[in-house]
Amino acid sequence: MDDHRFYSTPVKDLLDFFNTGLNGLSDEEVKRRIEKYGLNELEEKKESSLLIFFRQFNNPLVYILIVAITITFFMGDYIDAGIIAGIVFVNGLLGFFQEIKARSSIEALKKLTETKTRVLRDGKEKTVSVSHIVPGDIVILEEGDVVPADIRLIDSVGLMVDEAILTGESIPVEKDASILLKEETPIYNRKNMIFKGTIVVRGKAKGLVVATGRRTEIGKIAERIKEKSPETPLNRALKRFSMKWMIILFFILIFIFVLGLIQGRDLYKLFMLIISELVSAVPEGLPLVVTFVLVIGALALAKRKTLVKYLPSVETLGSATFIVSDKTGTITEGKLKVEEYTAEDEEFLFLTASLCNDATLEKGDPLEIALLRWLDEMGIDWIDMRERYTRLWEQPFDTKLRFMATVNEIDGKKYLLIKGAFESLIELAENRDEKLFKEHDRMAEKGLRVLAFGYTEVDRKPESLTDIKIKISGLVGFIDPPKEGVKEAVEIAKRAGIRVIMVTGDNLKTAKAVAEKVSIFGKGDIALLGSDIKKYSDDELYQILKRTSVIARATPEDKYRIVKVLQKNKEIVAVTGDGVNDVPALKVADLGIAMGSGTEAAKDVAKMIITDNNLAVIVDAVKQGRIIAHNIRKVIYYLLSCSFGEIMLLTSAFLLKLPLPLYPLQILWINVVTEGVQDKTFPFSREEKDVMSEKPKKPEKTFFDKKQLFDISFTAFFMGGVNLILFIYLLEVTTYERAVGITFTSLIANQWFNGFQAIREEPFFKNIIKSFTVNPYMYLGVGIGVALQLSATYLFPQWLHTVPLTLNDWLLILLTCTSLFLIIEIKKWVEYMMERKI
C-alpha cells in the first residue's frame, strides 16, 4: 500500500494490511519486522578525517606548487623543495584542524539519551526504545510525548500536536482519528495522521505505526539531502582565477623556454629561471592567508553567537543577495502571546481564562500557557482562583466541537465556563451582536489567532453542550511576537541590497501580519501561498521572487525549489531553518544556517549554526562576512601584485638578455619576509567604511573585478619596472653580486610599502590617523620582516646571495619604495575624485 493511502484508508483495512490488531504485535513478530524494516533510525553518513585532510589540497594553486616542488627536487635543490612543500602542508593542516574542531563542536551539541515510548505488545502496555518501533505497532501517546514514528490515529481525545518541526506551523494543530481524508490532502491538513518527531501538546491518542526510519516523512526529507552542496563563492572565484592563471603561466613558461633555447641560453640557467618564475608566479601564501582570514572571521562570528562548521562559508555571508528565512523561532519568538483582547464581561473573561484552562506556566497547550502569562501581566491571581473555585466537571477540548468547557462553583453558584473557536461559541451565544463579529474580523485581519470565551449559570452537569445558551464574555487575540532587533536587522539588510523572504507553514494572514511588523513585507511586495508556486515556470517564478517577501503554507519542496530557482539565476542564497522540513533547502543553499535549538538533522547539513535564534544575528553576521570579503580582496591584491611584480622583473630581464636579477632561494625568502609576515596581518583589518551601504556584488567581482585586475597590473608593472631600472643601473656601476643583493632588498621593501597602501581602499593620506589605526598589526608584521631582512643582509649574506648594504644603497632602495608608494597614492586620489564627480 502506498503511503498516500494511510490517511485515506479505514483503520480496519490498515490493521489487516499490516497484519496486526488492537492488542499490538508479539515480541517475536517485532524481531522479525526489525530484520525486515530495520531499526527506526535515520542513517547518518560521516566524512572520514582522511578525506577531509586530502580535500584541503584540492586547489589549482596547490597543483602549481606541486609542479614547482617536483622540478626543484629533481634539480637537486632539496632545501627549496622542502620549504615549498612545508608551506603547502601547513596550509592543508590548518584547514584540516579547523574543520575537525568545528565537527567536534557539532557532535557536542547532540543529545546522548535515547527516547522511549509506550506500545501495546500482546495486549500489554510496555515501554520500549523508539528505535525498536516497527510498522504494525500500536503506540499510546499523551501530552508531552514525542511522536516516535508516522502513525495513523485509531483513537484520539482532544489531541493537539505541534508540527512545527515538519511543517513550520507555529500553532499546534488539531487531530481527529475518526475522519477519512482524500488522497490529495497536503501534509499540513492530514488530521488523522501524526508524524515522527512532532510533539503532543494536548490530549491522548492511540495509533497504528505505518512508517518507520527513512520511510517516515522526516526520513524522506533526509533522503533528499544527498544532493551535493554548492561551492562557496570564494572557492568558485579562486578556482576560476587559478585555472586561468595556470593557462597563462603555462604559455609564459613555454615562451621563455623556447626563446631561451633559440637564444642559446645555458640549460641549467634556463631551468633556474623557470623555477624562479614558477615560485614567483604562485602566491603560495594565498590559500593559507585566505584560510587565516576565514579563521579570524569565524572566531569573530563565534563572539556574535555564530558557530562556523565549514570555514569557506564565512565569506559566503558577505556575498548573499537573498536571505530565505523561517518565521517561527527566527523572526518571531516561537512563543504565543496575547496581543489584545475585547471584553463584554471582563470578570468572567478572566475567570474563564483561569479556570477553563489545564496548563501551568511550565507545561501545557501553548495557547493556555499564553493565557496564564497574560493573566499574570494583568495582575490576576489565577492560582488563587483555581484554589477557591472548585472544578466540578470538565469537557476536554473536542476537535469536532472545537471548544473546552468546565463547571466550577463560584461564590456558591455553579457556572459553565467555555472557551474555543469563535465560530463554535457564537452559535451558542445569546449576545450575537454585530460588534463581536466586527471585533473578531478586525483581529483576524491583523493575523491574530482569536479565541472566544463564554459562560452561563447551570444547576447540574449539562447533558448536551450543543443545546446550551451562553453569554460571550470576550475575545482574546494571540500572536507569535517578533523578536527584538529583527525589524532593525531587516532594514539594514534592505539597505545592503539583500532581499529577505519569509517562508513559513503558517496561514497567509498571520504571515503577512508578522512580516509587516518587522518591515519584511511592504508596499509593492508580493505574498504567495506555497500552492501558488507550482503554477509558475522557473523563469516566471524568479521574476516573481524578486518582488516577493512572504510565502505561506510552504512545503519543504517549495522551499527547496525557491533556493534552486534563485541559484539558477546566479543569486547567492542564505537559508535559515531549524526543522527537518528545512533540511533539503539548507543542504543545497549557498549558505545553510541552522538554529542552535533546532533539530539535529538541520544542524548536520548546515554550514553555520547560530546559538541565538534571531534574524538580527544573521544580518550582523552578513556585515562581518562583508568585512571578511573586503579583507580577502585586499590580501589577494597584495599577494598577486607582489607576485606579478617579481614576474615582471624576471621576465623583463630575460627579454633584455640580462643576467638573472634574483635567485630562486631569494624569491622564497622574499615570500617569508613580506608575504610570510605582512599578509598574515590582513585578517585583523577593521571595517574601513559602512559595508552595509553597498549593494551585493557577484562573487567573481568581489575578488577579481576589472578594477582589482587593473590595480594588480598597475602596481606589478611599476614595481617590476622601477626595480628593473635599479638593476640595470647597478650592473653599470657595481658587481653583479652586489647588484643582485641591492635589487633583492629593494624588491622586499617595495612590497612592504605596497602593503601599507593595500590595507586601505581610500588614499593613505586622506585620513592618516585611520591609515595607522585600521590595522596596527600591519606595522608589527613589517617590523618582523625588517628584523629578518637585516639579519639576512648583515649576519649571513652568503646564504641568500646578498651583500651588506651601505647608506647609499639604502637611499637607492628608499627612492624606489617612495616612488611606488606615491604613484599608488596618486592613482587612488584620481579614482577618489572621479567617484565623487560621478
From TrEMBL:
Record-level GO cellular component terms: plasma membrane
The enzyme's E.C. designation: 3.6.3.-
Principal place of residence: membrane
Keyword Translocase recorded: yes
Annotated Cation-transporting P-type ATPase N-terminal domain residues: 5-77
GO molecular function, one term: ATP hydrolysis activity
Annotated keywords: ATP-binding, Cell membrane, Hydrolase, Membrane, Metal-binding, Nucleotide-binding, Translocase, Transmembrane, Transmembrane helix
Transmembrane parts of this sequence: 57-75, 81-97, 245-265, 285-302, 635-656, 712-731, 777-796, 808-826
Cited Gene3D superfamilies: Calcium-transporting ATPase, cytoplasmic domain N (3.40.1110.10), Calcium-transporting ATPase, cytoplasmic transduction domain A (2.70.150.10), Calcium-transporting ATPase, transmembrane domain (1.20.1110.10), HAD superfamily/HAD-like (3.40.50.1000)
Subcellular localization, as worded in the UniProt entry: Cell membrane
Domain of life: Bacteria
Membrane disposition: Multi-pass membrane protein
Biological process (GO), any one: inorganic cation transmembrane transport
Protein name, entry field: Cation-transporting ATPase Pma1
UniProt source species: Persephonella marina (strain DSM 14350 / EX-H1)
